[in-house]
């Protein structure tokens, strides 16, 4: 699959090492912002980098706080894309 390109931001790395839900979101979005700032070049556009990004987060048994974390992550992701001049996906 020569055309397959995927980028993963592993927020579970931070969550499994004791980060709070807020820290996990912050560190994951910080990593994603660094990738969006550094990876685009002449061959790959910013929109292609954003489309290839996948964010993984650790989920604990606390049902409602985890739902809130995922909703916050989704809204903050749209805000991050807006900051880079991209439409929310």
TrEMBL record:
Residues 1-85 form the Methylmalonyl-CoA mutase alpha/beta chain catalytic domain. SUPFAM superfamilies: Cobalamin (vitamin B12)-dependent enzymes (SSF51703). This is Methylmalonyl-CoA mutase family protein.
